[in-house]
Model the fold of this input.
Amino acid sequence: MKYYLLLIVPIFVASACGRKAHEKSTVQSWAGQSVDLTHIVNERDSFIMLDMEGRKVGGMIWEKEISGNSYVHNDVSYFDDGSIYEEASFYYNLVPLAIDSVQIVMKMSTAQLVVNYKIEGKRVLGTFKVVRDTSEQLIKIDSVYTYDILRPEIYSLLHSISFDSVNTFPLRVFSPEGLAIADAEISILGKETVDEGYGTFECTKIALDGGGVIPDNTIWVSEDPRRIVKVIVPGAKLNIVLAKHTP
Done:
């Protein structure tokens, strides 16, 4: 079940963050929606992962880095029992807005997954490697997929949407870890106050229906500043809440 979760939720590598807003075009298109990128700055958000009884079972770090025309979303995720540790980096060009490459290393008790992809339009090039004990399986990827976004983009860019102008929209989502396409759907559920973890936030509540391919999520995005502050993963029975923000 833990492995199932980490195929859903991204994680970021920690490094020093200085608050520096980018100076790129503010309004662009993502997932068929208008997005405003002005709120994306260099910052780090630390989360705790709780089970449904409220017991801490792990943690996450999401880090945003802006430099020139580049946006890097780093992600670190771990379980306290040591069963899974994952590091991932997602690289974007800001103008025009597009994901450029994906790097993921997931370490488990019995195996290690290493993903390195370069994205060229809808073409995915790179390697998918699974290491178990002394054996290694390497799959070379050079394929064109029919998709709208990669799964990591949901957590990197969803908070940039103008929620007042959208209700529900479908998405074909490519999962880099599973080489699978999900017929997913994003639904804006309305406004809700979140009061736990790092503080109290006025939020937009969002449902992600993963189409049975990627996990369903309920996501809360704070209004000011714009960031994800809470995620519930029903299938994994996990509640992920913001615990610390570092500029």
Summary: Confidence is low (pLDDT under 50) at residues 1-24. Residues 151-157 form the longest helix (7 residues). The longest strand covers residues 180-196. The two ends are 33 Å apart (CA to CA).
